[in-house]
């Protein structure tokens, strides 16, 4: 199963995940092209004639973008986490605020974005940031582009008593959606995960968030935890659904090399569920959520009453996004520089170094890669097939006006076999996974990517 591990959007959107049913994901080679040396810019960002024409035909895609803002500090490091975060120490709040504002302004200028579709504050623990910093970033964004009054503005919240008490201030600052990191309702499991809150803290935080932003609260929960059984998981999920709002994100626990939890499992001090049990947990969660009125709109995300995350939908639909803050990732076309190709950008990881770079140059972009047309189409497939709706023909044509899905994938024997097995659907609506296929996405992607690459190679040879 191809499942999005818990991570901040904009920080690791294209991360490949541990498979539950079919073994470790085998298509890392398709993503290896996105790794590059610090400071390197690859290729000719002015683009080929074909790529320039494609960009013109989907110009609207370059005129709007989401913004991801990364707050890198935490009070402690969770035992399973290997993301870009730093234990909070003497942080100059004024300096961080000024640098986040300045980088937001610079990237908006570089991208020439005229409309901001959503803003997401992730981390780290962004609920440790002063609400005044959140307000300042939003005000800066609104000064340099159109930020609609009803645009989704999400803040990730660590459900500690301190975090819950500040939610009202964050709402005043401009936040209108909270994503609460519940992770578990079992205190012992929270201790093993290294979390600094209790189950009661989490429930109180969810209740306060719902009071402030009813219908706009998401809860994150991790399954596959050490010692967890399928029965315990189903009971816990039912309890969570009795108190949660209208959005749930499920994340399979993945043991990341170098983390404390990984070392404990390797040493035999802790055991995690077997892959078949993990698969059972995921399948039962989908059924339970469905009975409670939640629609699965993405591999790991479920919503009812239309409470879909518009910010995350922008990622999955291959929209532009600006990554602000240490270690943030972005995808946008730097039109102010006269570029026509979208670039994959990564900001400097270390906060102290990032601050110096922003103060000197206005931004802390460490790495940038112009994405060739084939690479962009790969992202459209990789991200779009995570959605239950898949990739529509209309959406595909925005990125590939001269080669539709049927032309690119319809003649593939491997793709036809996946359809015959009931895992994939290619019809007049577009390309999407079936219910069974969505749980096996990692095994479906390699032949699709290979066929896309072969079609691109044939087109290049003819050209």
UniProtKB/TrEMBL annotation:
This is Radical S-adenosyl methionine domain-containing protein. The lineage of its organism: Eukaryota, Metazoa, Chordata, Craniata, Vertebrata. May be a heme chaperone, appears to bind heme. Homologous bacterial proteins do not have oxygen-independent coproporphyrinogen-III oxidase activity. Binds 1 [4Fe-4S] cluster. The cluster is coordinated with 3 cysteines and an exchangeable S-adenosyl-L-methionine. Residues 57-292 form the Radical SAM core domain. Keywords: 4Fe-4S, Chaperone, Heme, Iron, Iron-sulfur, Metal-binding, Mitochondrion, S-adenosyl-L-methionine, Transit peptide. One of its GO terms (molecular function) is 4 iron, 4 sulfur cluster binding. Pfam families: HemN_C, Radical_SAM. GO terms for cellular component: mitochondrion. Its main location: mitochondrion. Belongs to the anaerobic coproporphyrinogen-III oxidase family. HemW subfamily. The keyword NAD does not apply. It is found in: Mitochondrion. GO terms for biological process: porphyrin-containing compound biosynthetic process. CDD domains: Radical_SAM.
